[in-house]
Amino acid sequence: MSSPAISPPAMRFEIRRAHTAGHGDETRAALARLDARLKRGPVTLLGPLAPDPALCELYRRRGALEGSAGEYRAPTHTVVVPLHGLPRDCRRRWKEAGHELLDLTLPAVRRAQTSLNLLTLEHCKPLVIGSRDDAESAAISGEAKGAIVVEDGDQASQLPFAPKFGLVCQTGISRRLANGVAEALRLQHPDSRMVFLDTTAPANSERVRSVEALSRWSEAIIVAGEAREASVRTLIEASRRLGLPAFAIPDVASLDPKDFAGISRIGITAGEFSPDAVTEGLVARLETESAG
Known about the structure:
With 292 residues, the chain is α/β, with parallel strands linked by helices. It has ten helices and twelve strands.
């Protein structure tokens, strides 16, 4: 007679959320503008709304069409500049093509674009600290002729000499990374003048501080959001620097509670563009697993 199958013990999770997580005030305000406009009819997004598939899917369901920023034609009269912004020349060409622009460029991105322009007026070699394959870095660097995106200290140390460098940041990167790149450039070119304007978003720093506070209780951190998105990477790096395992989870379907076997206290935060519904769903899934 065979022995009855033994079910594995149920996992028991305690869950706490970071005090500050997810959309900052600027992102919430921009999305509220888009929601209000969609009530009047469809619009065309000039590329992905944000570097988060869950947020893009949410607005596809709400009636936003996806187009391409470089086509200069769209099925709707109103076209939408995504949250990460677009270079000035691109915006101008859409207006010249006869379209109405709903410009959702986040104020933090505008500040970085304006800062880079001011640095070029001061005859600086313009640099953007950020990811070369990120649309926001492209939008910022596209504001200044000859601007270069620098990803890390190694790339900074390979830059040729310039009498004067001007640096701004992609808004979602960590201040530690930005400061590290600036320091590497100073060491490589001690005779150059350098103007470093920290254009990281205040909301980014607030999320990091919340994770630091949460780390004193947590055994692991979940970051809701796309792993390659800058603010998510910043939170993952902050958690691991504090000695905690950290997981970027873009949606509820990607959550496997078995990944947290042996962990009882889980802290949850979210990147800048992850929808609130994703965080709510992750919490509900873990609570259901724990109750089972």
